[in-house]
Design goal:
By secondary structure, this protein is an alpha+beta fold. The protein folds into four domains: 2-54; 65-138, wza like fold (2-Layer Sandwich); 143-222, Outer membrane lipoprotein wza domain like (Outer membrane lipoprotein wza fold like, Roll), CATH 3.10.560; 235-315, Outer membrane lipoprotein wza domain like (Outer membrane lipoprotein wza fold like, Roll), CATH 3.10.560.10. The protein has nine helices and 15 strands. The protein has helices at 2-9, 18-54, 109-123, 163-169, 199-205, 255-261, 292-298, 320-325, 328-344, and strands at residues 71-75, 84-87, 93-96, 100-103, 131-134, 141-147, 153-157, 182-186, 193-197, 219-222, 235-239, 245-247, 274-279, 285-290, 312-315. It has a five-stranded mixed beta sheet with strand order 7-6-10-8-9. It has a five-stranded mixed beta sheet with strand order 12-11-15-13-14, covered by helices on one side. Strand 13 (274-279) and strand 14 (285-290) form a beta hairpin. The protein is globular. The protein starts with a helix and ends with a helix. The model is unreliable at 1-22 and 36-62 (pLDDT under 50).
Length: 346
């Protein structure tokens, strides 16, 4: 049908207007594209910003503990002459002219900022704010460690650690840890990837050197050694997890315990909208929604609630359209296609 319409328009009835019409159409489209390109830079910037915002946020260097030998940079906006780079000595102190020696070893960057700001204000009352940053490799490699470890949290390393070194830094595994299925979640690169590591076998064989080396912002999740339990009093985990089912969780258990018991979240899980469904004494159902990703990123316990027996945890899957739009590769392909069309019309 399209071919027939085109034949009719370009047939003998329009011998003089065919070329002129084509030129006019092409010029019109080109003009539209040029006009769009003037505004297009804003669209491209928005696309790139959206792609950047869709990437998992890295961890702040403030989680690194300052140690002897670290090099730091102090910036004082109100008194630029006070800006300087310092090295923490063996005793954990830095020396600032007029002020003297200040102990900051063992502190986080935020704590060091507070101490240094108070010291500076004693001599320079006009100083209102300062910033302290680590220089070079001392800024550290941040790793999340969650689950069945003594002290879950975010840890800084001077060089890329192995999975065992990360767990050891978190105080080691608990007696309930399932070391046969330690999960590494890697958000860097082309989308999120998950690896399973049999740490138990490595420990028994002594081949710790063969364990995978972690990359910045990796998350290590040590799940609880548990089994599916079909009786009452269990917590049922459904949706986008590795092994949905009812699990008996001992003691005071939280949302992360239930998700880890089910093998962890699947790659397509929407962790911003995890639902806890609870049956109330009067028989009514209460649905609570938690931003579990916020808990993983910041440790905000409001999004890692205590669970009760017979609760149901539903981890929804991301909508296909949203998962595509959050993929930086989609935006890159769109921008490249846009540029190719524009080039053809030149």
């Amino acid at each position: 049908m399209v071919q027939e319409v085109r034949s009719t328009l370009t047939g003998p009835l329009f011998p003089l207007h065919e070329e002129r019409a084509a030129d006019t159409l092409k010029a019109g489209v080109r003009g539209m594209m040029k006009d769009f390109m003037k505004k297009g830079s804003i669209l491209v910037a928005v696309c790139l910003a959206a792609a950047a915002l869709s990437l998992p946020a890295g961890l702040d260097a403030q989680e690194v503990t300052l140690r002897p030998g670290d090099r730091i940079e102090i910036t004082v906006p109100q008194r630029s002459e006070l800006d300087r780079r310092l090295v923490i000595d063996e005793a954990g102190r830095v020396s600032i002219p007029i002020i003297g020696e200040i102990m900051i070893g063992g502190m986080s960057l935020d704590e060091a900022e507070d101490v240094l700001l108070r010291s500076l204000r004693e001599i320079y009352p006009s100083v209102q704010t300062i910033s302290v940053n680590l220089l070079g490799e001392e800024s550290g490699i941040m790793i999340y460690v969650h689950g069945e470890v003594v002290t879950p949290g975010k840890y800084g390393f001077r060089q890329n650690p192995t999975v065992w070194e990360a767990i050891r830094e978190a105080g080691g595994a608990t007696s309930n840890a399932a070391l046969e299925t330690v999960r590494i979640i890697r958000a860097a690169g082309e989308g999120q990837r998950t690896f399973l590591v049999d740490l138990q076998a490595a420990l028994e064989s002594g081949n710790l050197d063969d364990l995978p080396v972690l990359e910045p912002d990796d998350a290590v999740i040590v799940s609880e050694s548990t089994a599916i339990h079909a009786g009452t009093g269990s917590v049922k985990v459904i949706g986008s997890v590795a092994a949905p089912g009812p699990y008996m969780l001992s003691g005071e258990r939280t949302l992360i315990d239930a998700i880890l018991a089910a093998g962890g979240a699947a790659a397509n899980a929407d962790l911003k909208k995890v639902n806890v469904i609870r049956t109330m004494p009067n028989g009514a159902q209460l649905t609570l929604t938690f931003d579990f990703r916020q808990y993983l990123a910041t440790g905000d316990i409001r999004h890692n609630p205590l669970l009760l027996p017979d609760d149901t945890v539903n981890v929804p899957a991301e909508r296909l359209g949203m998962s595509v739009l959050k993929d930086p590769r989609f935006w890159l392909a769109a921008i490249m296609a846009y540029a190719a069309v524009y080039a053809l019309l030149q």
